[in-house]
Prior knowledge:
Elements: E1 2-3, E2 19-24, E3 27-36, E4 39-49, H1 67-81, E5 88-93, E6 98-104, H2 112-127, E7 134-141, E8 150-157, H3 158-171, E9 174-180, H4 181-191, E10 198-204, E11 207-214, E12 217-225, H5 231-246, E13 255-260, H6 263-276, E14 282-285, E15 292-294, H7 301-311
Parallel strand pairs: 1-9, 2-5, 4-15, 5-9, 10-13, 13-14
Antiparallel strand pairs: 2-3, 3-4, 6-8, 7-8, 10-11, 11-12
Helix pairs in contact: 1-3, 4-7, 5-6
Amino acid sequence: MFLLSSIWQFLTSPSLPKVALAFIDGQGVLLKLKKRRGQFSAEQVASAFLPKALFRPDFSTSNIAEIRSLVDVLKQTIARAGLAGQKRWSIALPEEVARTVVINLDTKPQTQEELNQMIAWKVERLVSLPMSRLRISHQQLSNASSGLPRCLVTVVEDSVMKEYERVFEQLGWQAGLILPRHICEASWLMRNKNLGDKLLVSHNVWGFSSVAFRGDDPLMIRLRECGPEDLESEIYRLATYYQEKISLATNLTPLNLLVIGDQNQIELTTRTFADALADTKFNVIKPTELGLSVSDSSFQFNQVAAAAGLAALAYS
Length: 316
């Protein structure tokens, strides 16, 4: 089971599945993606409500109250989508389950073992759990301006991951690629050909996640927990942090902003960025520009973005 591959290099696997399951905001959304003439189409899609009594995503505590019950719910959803014959799947985990960060190393490691030790030391302090309880995957990025290495690191708690693995095993699935939800959604930015930095702001039930790119490298990954009353101020902080800490004064190309959420969240985020980025131009990427259609009109882009983004890697 492959947790966090090098999606920036669009993987080395010759055959990824075109079907994906995403756990988002108390739902399981699954679909099969097709591609025709450069456009993606989700023609088989279904979702299931996952009550908190059954499914409660968390980094370090049990997520699934009853494995068998979740399996039954997913089987019913698979049948509605007409995907019962599919055995190879990609999975988008809830953001709460994984910690994904860009780590800047303080010194240059001389060996792979030393690199692993440096990453492990930083991760233990980040999540306050011993290495014996963690699964870690890392991908080295281009070096910082200082010449020191940078790494994209994803961490999950081993016992939590085993719960999901038991679900997939009972479904008879081969889950070959597993990524956090926000990384799956951010893959749409990698397909966007606009010049300049790219920034995802993805709203969810507990706040929002954000991922910023320059070229093929992530610059920043943040998950912010906040209530509706604090949402505008937290988005303003994100925008000013980007402008002051990440944006280059010599970079004349505009920021490309993709907002995933309902219409009110999209309007709030766009308006807040406009207020905060007085000295930075930005474009808002509309979902219609991403080349994805959904056959079932009851599904909005924010519901299918993670699953579709993950399934789209099969066509890379």
